[in-house]
Every structure is written in C-alpha cells, then in structure tokens.
Write a structure and sequence with these properties.
The chain has 637 residues and is an alpha+beta fold. 35% of the residues lie in helices and 29% in strands.
Length: 637
C-alpha cells in the first residue's frame, strides 16, 4: 500500500470540505462552531483508498484569512495538493495567498478542482478554466490537471479519482529510513487511554513501545498505541496520518507545534541560516533586524531577520539570512518555512532551512555565504570542509556534521573518508569522532610549540615543560583531548621531544653561566652533606636564601645531570648516597632473599621518615617487589 498525504487549499466557501466529504463520505468539520458558522476553522482529516493500492490521508485546511496559521500547519506534510477554486467566483485573495504558501513550502505536485461547476454555464466554466490556467502558469501547477467537479451532483468525481490515482503514481512516498518525526497538529484525551496526538509522520517508522521525546519541552514518554486511518496498527509509516496514544505525558504537557521524536536524537535550535525568497507581492521591503512570524511544520514562533550580505531585501528578491528565534524549536536541514507579518496580516516570504545550528554570524561574512551556497547546491565535500573549517580550533563531531549539513549518514561517511585521505581534515578523537581542519590542526601545533618556547625563555634553567602543564596551555576554545595527537605530530615533525613527563624543544640545551654552575655545585655538596637525611625544599631555601622556584630549578639541573634523584615532590637524594643505599639493599636480598622495613632501617640507619619513601622508590625502579610487609628482589641482579 502506498501512503500519501493529500491536502486542500483555496479561498473560504469554495467548497473544500464539501468536496472531501463527496470523495470520502467523511465530514471534516467536527467543531460545533464550524457547524454553526458553516466555515472550516481548524484542520480536518479524512482518508481515501483508491484501487491499485493507493491510500490517501486527507488534510482539509481552513480558507479564511484569519485561520492561515491553521492552514500552514496542515501544508507541511502534503505530497499532493488539491487547489479548490469555485467556478462561480474564480480566483480570490486566499487562493493567491494559499498558492504562495504552497510554493514556499515546497509542494511539487497537485491539481486544480473547479468546484460548483453545476452552478455556471459552460461558457463561463471555460472562461474560468482559462483564467486559472493563466494564473498557475510558471508555478508547480502549470501543467496540472484542472478538473470541473460538483460535490452536490457528483459530476466529475470519477474523473477526479482517476487524476488523483495518476498523480499518486508519480509521487514517491516519504523516506522511511532515518528517525521518526511527527509534528503534532491536534491534541485530545480519550477515556481509558489518556493523551492522544495526531499528525503526519514526516520520516521513519514509529512502533508501539517506542521511547519518545516531545520537543521543544524535552518531556519523555512512550508510545502506548497507534491508529492509522482509523484502524489500530503496531507500526506507523512515513507518509501516514497517525493518531498516537502517549504514555507518561499529560494532556497539558503537549500542544500543537510540539514534535514527537525518538529520545536523545534531535536537538532544538534558536537560530537557523536559510535561503529566503521575499514574495513579489510583499507590501514592503524587508529590513535588517525586522520582526516576523516563522511558520514551519505545525508551529509558529517569532523571529528576527539578520541579513548577512545586504541591508534590505526588496519584494521579489532572494537572499541568505539568519533567523534568530524567540523560542527554541526543532528545525532540521531541508525543512521548509514561511514568514508572515501582522500588519497587514500577510505572507511575505519563505524558503528552506540550510544550516539549523549556525554560529552567530557576523554581517558581510563571506565564509557564511560560501557555506550556505554549498549547502543549497548540496556539494557534500565542500560543505564538510567548510563546516569543519568554520568550527575553528574546537572541531566538530560527526553527529553535529549530520545535524548541520543535512547529509545522510552514509554519504557523510563516504565524504569524510575522502577528505581524510586527502589530508584536508583530521580525526582527533575516536568517541565521539571529532574532526578538525588541517589549517586548525597546524595552528594548534604552532601554538603548542610557541608555548614550549615561551616557557623555556622564562625558565632558562629547565630543559622542558611538564606535559600536564603544557596541556592546560591549549586554547580554551579547543579540546584537551586533542593534546596527544598534536604532541605525536610535533614529535614526528621533529619539533618537540616528549621525555617521560616533560616536553622540550628539539635541539634545546641548557647553557649554564659560571654563577649558576657554582650555585648548583653548592646544592650538590649540600645534598651529599645531609646524606641519609636529605633536606626539604624549605630547608634548601633557608640554606641558600632563595625562593622555591630557584631551589627547584637548581635541583632540576642536578637531576638532569645525574647528580641527584627525585624520590617525591619534596624529597631528593644525592645520587652517590642513593646508590649506596640501593647497593646495601641488593646485597642483603641476594643473601637473605627478603627484608622487612625494620630490618632495612637497622641495615642503613635510616629514620622512618625516609625509610618508606625509599622502599617505595626502589619498588618503582622495579628492583624490589612488596609481598605482604616484606620486600624481595623482582629479579636476580
């Protein structure tokens, strides 16, 4: 069964609802007020099955200018539109506005139904047909069938069904791959079932038991039941009109304009970059920072228009703009939208979302326009290069590339593989996969090299900077997870040399002045003098009347020269003293095979303050291994 959505459009009182009832036997005016006033106020729904496996969900929209908001909410999921024009009145104001909306929202297929044909003479019907054909010239309905029909007498209904079948065979069903997305156009409650929402499933499949999320609120729930065209089903398919029973969601927690989606998949946004077509019928030019109402899917939100490359858009012109929204909504790349203004209440333009998660754009930004041109032309490689490049030093994840570009997962994988092969981009992390442009990668490498150079300039007695300290010096807008691949690349390039816990410049050497050499010799003598009870940093500072940095720098030189060994952050032994302690330990273990801390203290005369750190140091040197409270040789030495 092929599932498609058929929608009506047209001026008030031109017979849209009557025609739907004549086709399906279903009266889509369900409200008391609609019955009393004889006009459609809210969206109405019906279904129609045609021989040959065609099933239409039908959306009947209101025609009055006061209810354009409701009309727009019904257009978003249409596959085929039936533009209804009364033969006795012809083209009217809402006929024109509805046509503008249909074109802006990307409806591609349809027909014209000339209703009330039983009320006019044949000559008049021919004139109206000619007028309609001229009006739709140049639009998506230019070559569409024009079918005279009467809902009262049934004239033309069989021909209309035949035309609908032919059009349906020319239209593809909505994509079933990807995640489900159901914009809510109606909310109600049923005794014994709870909250029910209806809408047109735009993509994917939704199944009873699925976990769901309501956006933009983020409310979580579960699919309790599904109906399609009045029948209970286990699974709803893209292109179907569905009623979905929500478990865990109260009636006041969901509204028209919300979207039912899988949990933790989609993100909401407060700004989108778009192509905007400003209608030639718009009452005035559109200025930078103009306030408008954005309509897409089933919701409406206020927006501010930020013009990227000009100060105004004249009626009939198109431009790339950023729309900054007053409230967060769900918009994805490729979604259609329209813009309306309140005074006079009219549709002024619309278009397609190109980038649903753009950065805050600077005006006259050439790089922004380049990206939007590529997004619109669907140049996948160029789009990925620009999106990754414009992420600067922070990089961008694979999932965010999908969200911003609108490229399918399969196509994105193939595109990124090509770009990785050419070296235009680099993958910096595995989970999540984050990509960085080559230019940004080189900039980070240069920055790290400069940081090492600056540190060594400020610390002439040190051979290098600690790895952890260097990592903290990466730009805040970058990611510290990039540090390891950057350091590896710099080592391969022969620019930096990682050594244990420090990083130094290639070819770096400490050149000691005579005074520094004299001072370090004094430090070395002091450590040998203290022998088994080495001084603390504080004691060294007092002995040589220096600050802590100077004390540690001089000790670092001794360690680098092999004259001292670091046991802990505040404990340093002269190398010859430590060698003697190590030798005594090894000789004892070769003879006795094991030793306790108290036995080692008796052997060396060490105080407990130094005893345990030393034994742990020998463990770390892999000379000994602890077994209970004893040490044994790790291997025969």
């Amino acid at each position: 069964m092929k599932n498609l959505i058929l929608g009506t459009a047209g001026h008030i009182d031109h017979g849209k609802t009557s025609l739907v009832m004549a086709l399906t036997g279903i009266d889509t005016d369900r409200l008391k007020e609609e019955k009393a006033r004889g006009i459609t106020i809210e969206l109405g729904f019906a279904h129609l099955e045609l021989p040959g496996g065609i099933r239409f969900g039908i959306i009947d929209v209101p025609g009055h200018e006061k209810f354009v908001r409701s009309m727009v909410a019904g257009v978003g999921g249409m596959d085929i539109v039936m533009l209804v024009i009364a033969a006795d009145e012809g083209i009217m104001p809402q006929t024109r506005e509805h046509m503008d909306i249909l074109r802006l929202l990307g409806v591609k297929k349809g027909l014209v139904a000339l209703t009330k044909c039983d009320l006019v003479e044949r000559e008049w019907l021919d004139l109206v047909t000619e007028e309609v054909r001229e009006y739709v010239s140049g639009s998506f309905l230019e070559n569409a069938p024009i079918v005279p029909v009467s809902s009262r007498t049934g004239e033309g209904l069989d021909l209309l069904r035949d035309v609908l079948y032919r059009l349906a065979s020319e239209v593809d069903e909505k994509r079933r791959e990807g995640h489900f997305r159901l914009p809510v156009d109606r909310v109600f409650t049923m005794t014994g079932f709870g909250t029910v929402v209806t809408g047109t499933l735009l993509s994917g499949e939704i199944t009873v038991g699925d976990d769901l999320e309501l956006l933009p609120s983020g409310r979580m729930g579960r699919v309790r039941g599904i109906q399609a065209h009045g029948s209970k089903v286990e699974k709803g398919l893209a292109g179907q009109r569905l009623a979905v029973n929500l478990q865990g969601v109260d009636l006041d927690e969901v509204h028209r304009g919300d979207v039912v989606v899988p949990r933790n998949i989609f993100q909401i946004t407060r700004a989108v970059d778009v192509r905007l077509d400003h209608l030639s019928t718009a009452p005035r030019e559109l200025k930078h920072r103009a306030k408008v109402n954005l309509h897409s899917a089933t919701y409406e939100v206020q927006a501010q228009v930020v013009l990227l490359d000009r100060n105004t858009i004249q009626p009939g012109e198109s431009a790339y703009v950023q729309l900054r929204l007053s409230e967060p909504v769900l918009l994805i790349s490729g979604d259609s939208y329209i813009l309306r203004v309140a005074s006079p209440a009219t549709t002024i333009g619309g278009g397609v979302v190109l980038d649903p998660f753009p950065p805050r754009r600077r005006r006259r930004s050439e790089e922004a326009v380049m990206l939007l041109e590529s997004l619109e032309s669907q140049e996948h490689q160029r789009v990925c290069v620009l999106i990754i490049g414009q992420s600067k030093l922070s990089g961008i994840s694979f999932e965010d590339i999908l969200l911003r570009s609108g490229i399918s997962r399969k196509a994105a994988e193939a595109t990124l593989a090509i770009l990785l092969g050419t070296g235009d981009i680099l993958q910096m992390t595995r989970e999540p996969r984050i990509f960085l442009a080559r230019e940004s990668f080189e900039s980070l490498k240069s920055g790290l090299t400069d940081e090492v150079s600056a540190f060594l300039a400020d610390n002439p007695l040190k051979l290098g900077i600690g790895k952890e300290e260097l990592k903290t010096r990466m730009p805040k807008r970058s990611d510290q997870r990039f540090f390891t691949p950057l350091l590896s690349a710099l080592e391969r390039d022969g620019l930096l040399i990682p050594e244990r816990d420090i990083v130094t410049l290639a070819g770096q050497a400490v050149r000691l002045t005579a005074s520094i050499e004299e001072r370090t010799a004094d430090f070395s003598a002091f450590l040998r003098e203290k022998a088994l009870e080495p001084p603390t940093i504080k004691e060294i500072m007092e002995r040589f009347h220096c600050d802590e940095k100077s004390a540690r720098d001089n000790i670092a030189i001794l360690i680098r020269n092999g004259d001292a060994v670091r046991i802990s952050s505040d404990l340093f032994y002269a190398s010859e003293v430590l060698n003697g302690l190590r030798e005594k330990l090894i000789l004892h273990l070769r003879e006795k095979e094991e030793i306790t801390p108290s036995e080692y203290r008796e052997l060396t005369g060490l105080s407990r303050k130094f005893l345990i750190p030393l034994l742990e140091h020998f463990d770390s040197e892999k000379i000994t291994i602890r077994v209970g409270d004893r040490r044994v040789l790790r291997k025969r030495l």
